[in-house]
Specification:
The complex is a heterodimer of chains A (309) and B (333). With 309 residues, chain A is α/β, with parallel strands linked by helices. Chain A has one domain: Thiamin diphosphate (ThDP)-binding fold, Pyr/PP domains (Rossmann fold), CATH 3.40.50.970. In chain A, 36% of the residues lie in helices and 12% in strands. Chain A has a five-stranded parallel beta sheet with strand order 2-3-4-8-7, with helices on both faces. Chain A has a two-stranded antiparallel sheet with strand order 1-9. A two-stranded antiparallel ribbon of chain A has the order 5-6. In chain A, β7, α9 and β8 form a beta-alpha-beta unit. In chain A, α2 packs across α9 and α5 packs parallel to α6. The longest helix of chain A has 18 residues. The model of chain A has no long low-confidence stretch (mean pLDDT 95). With 333 residues, chain B is of the alpha/beta class. Chain B has two domains: 158 residues, Thiamin diphosphate (ThDP)-binding fold, Pyr/PP domains (Rossmann fold), CATH 3.40.50.970; 135 residues, Rossmann fold. In chain B, the strands form three sheets. In chain B, strands 3-2-4-5-7-6-12 form a seven-stranded mixed beta sheet, with helices on both faces. The model of chain B has no long low-confidence stretch (mean pLDDT 95). At the A-B interface, α5 and α6 of A face α3 and α5 of B. Chain A: It holds the Pfam family Transketolase_N. Chain A: This is Transketolase. Chain A: Keywords: Thiamine pyrophosphate. Chain A: Belongs to the transketolase family. Chain A: InterPro entries: THDP-binding, Transketolase_N.
Chain lengths: 309, 333
């Protein structure tokens, strides 16, 4: 698809959309937009080779789960384009980043803004924790740590079939607390799966708070290298660095880009809540109003009209 | 009785070489699952996944996305206990054509609690989109590969290995119940290794005047409730199920559900492990100790009918004793 916006513009648009949505809905995964906006903007706007969406701009309602009795079932992968040998595939491993991923789809013209209004509504396919049938999703990744394994399996299969398209996994650093992540990295290295790459949002935050207070994970880059990955570390808000990292040769091994991010980037006002950033909920109407004014100013937009909410 | 050595090994190889989309996955139990020869002769179709079942199951889901049909080989317990979440999210929910080949079902291993899949049927049969098959003889083991690969979705199979008796001369057919005798006093339902036990008991029961209708199940899910109820309705006393599994959640439970839902007011005796773990030992010892053998079936039938048969151990055909250290097994497990 033709790039209409710069990746910087897409990133800013993601932050604005997630902010507005969170204000209107009295909370949301705001911090994930801060940390990951450039990463998802980079993936959708320039790094991935994707075809035109195959599903309607306004998402269809929930169409049932996969079963032998549901032959019309489709996943949300159609928002990333058709499955063709030369197109890339993307997995959003931390499925609670769905709001940020949906905002990215809108910013790059793959989903209509109305899609975000369906977020977390009963009967909608635009689920809070991205499901297989949610826009841009292809598998369930709600239980953290399974995404890279799936990507590795698909990548092995695509390599075997001689497909030129790559498999990309968007990951989060909390996933390195799960043993399966390490099983997956060692397997990808053992089997020489080099049509697989990942970008990991290293924001050092998790549900309970700062990762170091929940479970220290040590030096992720050293550990990943020891398990067989090629690792590049970058500033998650530096898109040029991201481009260079993607170009890192990784023959015979998966590439994992550690994108060190700020969980409040673009919305510094959120530092007031640090380290409780996983899901931002407002404690009072005053806090909501204060945040609305302050963050809107940071994002260069007018405060969200909360009159009807 | 004809004994067949390692029927799975040949059956898998014959089938897989004809189907390049079939992949052979192993989690460090390659010779224990009789696929070592396949690995050596067809390394391009074999993936060593190491002792890492969680990744193996999600990875297999990814292979399924790419259009492959992975056969995962390991002991049954390792397919669903540790990687249950991955089984659900990466295989069962999306209906990937992943074939879970679970070796050493129930007490067929001396490995004790950690190795004995005694609740696998109860767990797997409650998983939406899952098919559950079980092998009871060499013919069924030979047929399980093609039968499993015919399933449009994920399938879990209880597979027998090593030296396996041949009881049947017609191939494995998914969904088909084998009617092994058509008596009208008692309905006996078995699957897997308990079928051989029931066959051992049948001769003595005939002599004692108990007319047994004996069904062997190789498709456990979908469970043919209608057929089971019809057979149960056709006998005088009721039903005895005998399974290499806990009595909760397996064939006994499925039979009870079918009878209750049909409103069939007949007695049911469920034989198997009774809310207990097993320990390590030989198969005949364990089957005797936990009441899974021919004599346990006779006693179950007596409970059902309220009549003594006079059958004792000596009246039953000789127990087939298998050496713990056998040339056809990779290790003592």
């Amino acid at each position: 698809m033709q790039n209409v916006k710069t990746t910087e513009e897409v990133a800013l648009g993601i932050r604005r959309r997630v902010f507005e949505h969170s204000m209107r809905n009295n909370g949301g995964y705001l911090s994930q937009a801060c940390s990951a906006a450039e990463q998802l903007a980079f993936l959708y706007n320039e790094a991935l080779t994707l075809g035109q969406p195959t599903l309607p701009m306004i998402p269809r309602p929930f169409g049932g789960v996969p079963s032998a009795d549901n032959p019309d079932y489709v996943t949300g992968a159609g928002y990333n384009g058709p499955f063709e040998p030369h197109f890339d595939r993307l997995f959003i491993a931390p499925a609670h980043y769905a709001l940020v991923a949906y905002a990215a789809l809108i910013e790059v013209g793959r989903m209509a803004p109305e899609g975000l209004e369906m977020f977390n509504q009963d009967g909608s396919s635009v689920e809070m924790i991205g499901a297989e049938h949610s826009p841009g999703m292809e598998v369930h990744n709600g239980t953290l740590g399974i995404g890279f394994s799936t990507g590795a399996g698909l990548a092995w299969g695509r390599k075997r079939k001689g497909e030129s398209g790559k498999v990309c996994v968007f990951m989060s650093d909390g996933e390195v607390q799960e043993g399966q992540t390490w099983e997956a990295v060692q397997a990808a290295a053992h089997h020489g799966i080099d049509n697989l790459w990942a970008i990991m949002d290293v924001n050092r935050q998790q549900c309970d708070g700062a990762m170091d207070s929940v479970m220290e994970v040590g030096d992720i880059s050293t550990k990943l290298r020891d398990f067989g990955a090629v690792v590049v570390e970058i500033d998650a808000h530096d898109i040029d660095a991201m481009r260079q990292a993607r170009a890192e040769p990784h023959e015979g091994r998966p590439l994992i880009i550690l994108a060190h991010s700020s969980p409040t980037k673009g919305m510094d006002f959120l530092m007031k809540r640090f380290p409780r950033l996983h899901y931002v909920r407002f404690k009072s109407a005053e806090e909501r109003d204060e945040m609305n004014t302050a963050i809107a100013a940071e994002l260069g937009i007018a405060p969200v009209d909360l009159g009807g909410h | 009785m004809e004994m067949v050595n390692r029927p799975y090994a040949g059956a898998f190889e014959r089938y897989a070489v004809q189907h390049p989309e079939v992949l052979c996955l192993s989690a460090d139990l390659t010779s224990s699952c009789e696929i070592d020869g396949f690995r050596d002769r067809h390394p391009d179709q074999f993936l060593s996944m190491g002792m890492a079942e969680q990744n193996m199951l999600s990875f297999a889901g990814g292979l399924g996305l790419a259009g492959f049909r992975p056969f995962i080989h390991t002991f049954g317990v390792f397919l669903y206990r540790r990687p249950y979440d991955q089984l659900m999210a990466s295989i069962a929910y999306p209906r990937r054509k992943v074939r879970l080949m679970g070796f050493l079902p129930g007490v067929t291993t001396p490995g004790g609690m950690t190795h004995q899949a005694i609740e696998d049927i109860s767990v797997l049969r409650t998983i939406p989109n899952m098919t559950v098959l079980e092998t009871g003889d060499a013919t069924e083991v030979e047929g399980i590969v093609e039968a499993a690969d015919s399933i449009d979705g994920p399938v879990y199979c209880r597979v027998l290995r090593g030296s396996v008796p041949r009881l049947f001369d017609t191939p494995f057919k998914v969904g088909e119940i084998r009617i092994l005798s058509e008596g009208d006093d008692v309905l006996v339902i078995t699957a897997g290794i308990t079928t051989e036990e029931a066959i051992r008991a049948r001769g003595a029961l005939d002599k004692a005047g108990v007319s047994v209708r004996h069904l062997h199940l190789s498709t456990l899910k979908p469970f043919d409730a209608e057929a089971i109820v019809a057979h149960a309705a056709s006998v005088k006393h009721g039903v005895v199920t005998l399974e290499n599994h806990l009595v909760a959640g397996g064939i006994g439970s499925m039979t009870a559900e079918a009878m209750a839902e049909a409103g069939l007011g007949k007695k049911l005796v469920r034989l198997g492990l009774r809310d207990t773990y097993a320990h390590g030992g030989s198969r005949p010892y364990l089957m005797n100790y936990y009441g899974l053998d021919a004599l346990a079936l006779v006693r179950g039938i007596e409970r059902l009918t309220g009549e003594e048969t006079g059958i004792d151990e000596d009246a039953l055909d000789a127990v087939r004793v298998e050496a713990v250290h056998s040339a056809v097994k990779a290790e003592a497990l």
